[in-house]
Amino acid sequence: MLGLRKNKKKAPLTLPNRFHVKMGDTVWVTHGKDKGKTGIVRKTFHDRGKVLVEGINLIKKAVRPNPMAGQQGGIVEMEAPMPVAKVMLFCLQCNKPTRVKKTTLGDGKKVRVCQKCSAQFDS
Ligand SMILES: [Zn+2]
Prior knowledge:
The protein has 123 residues and is mainly β. The protein has strands at residues 26-29, 38-45, 50-53, 58-63, 74-79, 82-83, 87-91, 96-98, 100-104, 110-114. The chain is built from no helices and ten strands. The structure holds zinc ion.
């Protein structure tokens, strides 16, 4: 045995503590095959650091027919979760992907605001 692979441990997965996007946000894809596309966040997976975006990162999955559920077999195209670091929040007001800043309103409510045009994301 050569034993060369002994120390090649997989690096531990580092997950972001908090997500910069929420369910229902419109996001812009920064990496990968869907780069430059926008979609709406359908689900967030905090334990895996991933988000499910509508119409983004489509995969083809072979599905067995399930007559009980009335499901037909074949190849089904579905969305797969993608890393949250590969999406940016998209501002619909200035039509650009932006970063957010947080500001406190007059009544003490904290809201996320577009850094470019100061449009509110949370109403
Ligand atoms: Zn904006």
